[in-house]
Amino acid sequence: MDISNWSVEDFVLDPGFKSWVLYPDRNDSVLWEEHLEKNPQKLEEIKQAREILLNLSSKSFRISPNDKNDLWTKIEEECSDDRSLATEPGKIIPLNSYSTIRRKETREKDSTIRIPQFYRIAGILLICFVLSFLLNTISKEEKRQSEVKNREYIEHVTQPGVKSSLTLSDGTKVMMNSGSKIYYEKYFRDNNREVFLEGEAQFDVFKDPEKPFIVHTGNIATTALGTSFNINAYGKRIDIYLLSGKVRVMDKSKGGQLAVQLEKGESAHISMGGNMLTDKFNAEKVSAWTKGVIVFDKTPVIEALEILENWFGVTFEIQNKPIGHVTVSGKFDNETLKNILIGLSYSARFDFDIIDNNVKIHFTN
């Protein structure tokens, strides 16, 4: 029997359907269960036809349709585990038309929202993982920000005419030349020990292989593990002189592509344009300033005066420029400004007048 094209009226008039609704037995229940399995789209018509039959036959029964449905529901719940009624192992036969329709409605609803158990578990695990990851990330970021916020940084400045020495928390010794500044963390906490330098300083780095020591001068980063070196970043050029050990000099503005490793006695010179050259140097001359000694070796006279200006904390007023390329040479060990100017004036041919912290220079040419 094919019920796929039946209307509500067809169901109401069908003797078999009427028997199933009003006088259900085991065979009717199995038959109409199979019909609904094959034609789930007829569920609404079957429900309407059933209601019509129940209402038409209500005068023959003292129990109302709703009460009857409730009674069948209770009976079915009590008997749901009775496998003796099943035609196949594990299969339960509905007791009446209401049971069949109700089970079919529940199955249809479940099929639209049911998610396989595997995917539900996977979804729950994924949500837990994401939440755990986010909470862990937020916690780490808040901890990092808290640590950064609570860190103490120190800025050490030497005024023109003043030199200074200090020891960092890791044991590294720093000698600063006049008119210089370094900025560093009071207690190094990260994997690197970083110092930011303006001017000139000499570093005797305490060896710690797990924490490289890095000096930043503009875009240039000089990295060492345990060594001593001098960095001069006063003017338009950065000069790095390696006194002992090894250092790696890198230009950060070029993504680390421009880098060089220096051996003892080698120097690196980086111009404003980013060009890097390496050379040998005289260690005594480079470190002389740390001992109060000024060394000029064919130094342009204007550059020599700029060094003296910073060394003694004075201001030079140059009234006229020298003719040609004038250089000066000489070694001055803890000499006064006046004595140094007297010594230089003979070869550079200039007169000078010192008034407090001002010095007037006049080249005689």
What does this structure look like?
The protein has helices at 8-13, 15-22, 26-38, 43-56, 65-79, 97-113, 117-150, 283-287, 301-312, 337-348, and strands at 153-158, 164-167, 173-176, 180-185, 193-204, 213-217, 220-224, 228-233, 238-244, 247-251, 259-262, 266-270, 276-280, 293-300, 315-320, 327-333, 350-355, 358-363. Helix 4 packs antiparallel against helix 6 (97-113). The chain has four domains: 8-113, no CATH class; 116-150; 153-287, Jelly Rolls (Sandwich); 292-363, Phage tail protein beta-alpha-beta fold. The protein is an alpha+beta fold and 365 residues long. It has ten helices and 18 strands. A hairpin with a 5-residue loop joins strand 12 (266-270) and strand 13. The N and C termini lie far apart (128 Å). The radius of gyration is 48 Å and the shape is rod-shaped.
Topology, please?
Layout: H1 8-13, H2 15-22, H3 26-38, H4 43-56, H5 65-79, H6 97-113, H7 117-150, E1 153-158, E2 164-167, E3 173-176, E4 180-185, E5 193-204, E6 213-217, E7 220-224, E8 228-233, E9 238-244, E10 247-251, E11 259-262, E12 266-270, E13 276-280, H8 283-287, E14 293-300, H9 301-312, E15 315-320, E16 327-333, H10 337-348, E17 350-355, E18 358-363
Parallel strand pairs: 5-6, 15-18
Antiparallel strand pairs: 1-4, 2-3, 3-5, 4-5, 5-8, 6-7, 7-10, 8-9, 9-12, 10-11, 12-13, 14-16, 17-18
